[in-house]
From TrEMBL:
Highest rank taxon of the organism: Eukaryota
Cellular component, GO annotation: mitochondrion
Gene3D superfamilies xrefs: 3.30.420.40
Taxonomic source organism: Polyporus arcularius HHB13444
UniProt protein name: Gcp-like domain-containing protein
GO BP terms, alphabetized: mitochondrial tRNA threonylcarbamoyladenosine modification
Length: 204
C-alpha cells in the first residue's frame, strides 16, 4: 500500500511464515534473532513511511503538527521510539514535533483492554446479537463510500453502543446508576476509569 495512508502487514507475515515453514520451524537461535530483527525493521519502516505521508498531507492542508501521541502495546518498543523520533526530526527540522509516549507500564496490549471491557459487559448481563458484520479488512475509505444513509445509521448505532456501555461501566464501577450519558461521564471523571484499568493491566 505504498503512497497510501493505509496499513497491511499481511505480506510481511506471509513472508516470515513461508520462511519458517520451509525449514519446518527448525532454526537456530541466531537465525531466530535475525528474523525477528528483520521483521521489526520492516514493520517499523512501514510506520515511518505512513508518518511521513501523514505529515506531508497535514502540511498541504495547512495543519501544523506539534504533537504525536503513540500508545498501545507497541509504544513500549525502544526501537520504534527511536525511529519515530528520527523520522519526525528529518521531516520537520525547523519545528520540533513533541513525541508523546505513555509510561511503559501503561503501554498495554489493546486486545487486553478490549477483553477487559467485554468481560465487564458480560458480568453485568449486557450482551449483543450476532448481527455485526465481521470483516478482516474494512477501511475507513470504504465506509465513506457507502452513502450517507449507511454512514448515518452506523454512526447512530455506534453512538448508542458507546452511550449504553458508558452507563453500564459507571453503574458497575461507581455503584450509582447514572441518569444520562453526561451524568455517566461526570461520575467517571472524564476517562479516569480507563486510566485505572490501564494501571491494573500494567506490564510486569
Amino acid at each position: 500500500m505504498r503512497g497510501r495512508l493505509a496499513f497491511s502487514y499481511t505480506g510481511l507475515h506471509s513472508t516470515v511464515e513461508r520462511f519458517l515453514d520451509a525449514r519446518r520451524g527448525e532454526i537456530d537461535e541466531r537465525t531466530k534473532l535475525g528474523v525477528a530483527r528483520s521483521f521489526q525493521k520492516a514493520a517499523v519502516g512501514q510506520l515511518e513511511d505512513k508518518l511521513v505521508l501523514g505529515m506531508r498531507e497535514c502540511a498541504q492542508k495547512g495543519i501544523s503538527v506539534r504533537h504525536l501521541v503513540v500508545s498501545g502495546g507497541v509504544a513500549s518498543n525502544s526501537f520504534l521510539r527511536e525511529r519515530l523520533r528520527a523520522c519526525l526530526d528529518a521531516e520537520s527540522p525547523d519545528e520540533r514535533v513533541e513525541l508523546v509516549f505513555p509510561p511503559p507500564h501503561l503501554c498495554t496490549d489493546n486486545a487486553a483492554m478490549i477483553a477487559w471491557a467485554a468481560m465487564d459487559r458480560f458480568l453485568t448481563g449486557d450482551t449483543d446479537e450476532y448481527s455485526i458484520e465481521s470483516r478482516p479488512k474494512w477501511s475507513l475509505e470504504e465506509l465513506e463510500g457507502q452513502g450517507e444513509l449507511r454512514q448515518g445509521r452506523l454512526g447512530l448505532e455506534m453512538t448508542g453502543v458507546a452511550n449504553r456501555d458508558m452507563l453500564e461501566y459507571a453503574t458497575l464501577r461507581v455503584g450509582i446508576k447514572p441518569t444520562s450519558y453526561n451524568h455517566a461521564k461526570l461520575r467517571l471523571r472524564d476517562g479516569f476509569w480507563l486510566l485505572i484499568q490501564l494501571q491494573q493491566l500494567k506490564c510486569t
